[in-house]
User: What shape does this take?
Amino acid sequence: LVVTKTQEQWSDSSVTVYFSETNETGLSTERVNLFCRSLTTSDLVSEEWTGQTTWPSISVAIPDPSADYECQLYAENALGKSEPDRFQLTAPAPSLPSSPIISNATAEDGEIRLVIGEYSSGSGILEYEASCTDGSTTAIGRSFDGPVVTVSGLTNGVAYQCRARARNSAGWSDSTAYPGSLTPEEFVPAG
Assistant: This one.
């Protein structure tokens, strides 16, 4: 009974390990186990294939995708465990996020709020940034905790052109322009 890693596929917070099996015992494989230990933090992760999940792969959550992991993969049947296939997992370098989609924008009293929608690629967004200009003055807003960015300090009654971009550990995306202009207006309470 021999099990061997054939490839790996990474996502933002997990890795899927594909494997092949050579089984000349005449007994079916009951489970395949994957154990990985971070080389920097000593985090341990493990997962088991028991026949109820997609063959021939095991997906495991990775607490620190920037760390390298030392792993062992082995199979079990009624005769016991195979010798482990030992290998190292190294996450690929992150790619720049693609240009964001501005899904909504509102002009309010002295500010403009942009809502950033989905990305077509990129991962681990750390910061969103929006800039609004009237042609001579540019104001910038940032958000570190979500895809809504407020640009403050704008002049009411003046039209602004706005752009947005996102940053991950690889750097900044290209910016995307909001189609059309936005004009902040003074808030006047009813009554």
Notes: The mean pLDDT is 88. The radius of gyration is 25 Å.
